[in-house]
Structure prediction request, 86 residues.
Amino acid sequence: MKYHYMRISPTTVRIELIPEDNSEKMLLQNLSQGEPDNQALNKLFENGLAIYQTSTKLITKKFMDFPRVALCSFENIVQLSDVSMP
Prediction:
């Protein structure tokens, strides 16, 4: 799966899922028949976010074209290695 990523704000991005082969096209077609909160669909958008924004957590998705395009809100995850010690 390829992902088209567009930054909207510091905590919101537009992600488009772009299938690369017939199995991915079928996957999206099957997901289009289900619920927007499908776990497999969430994972696809999490993967798309992780490619461009590391150390983040997907908070919400608002679909613009279900199931392929969504506005995704996220938060940055602070890791212990990111925190400087006095």
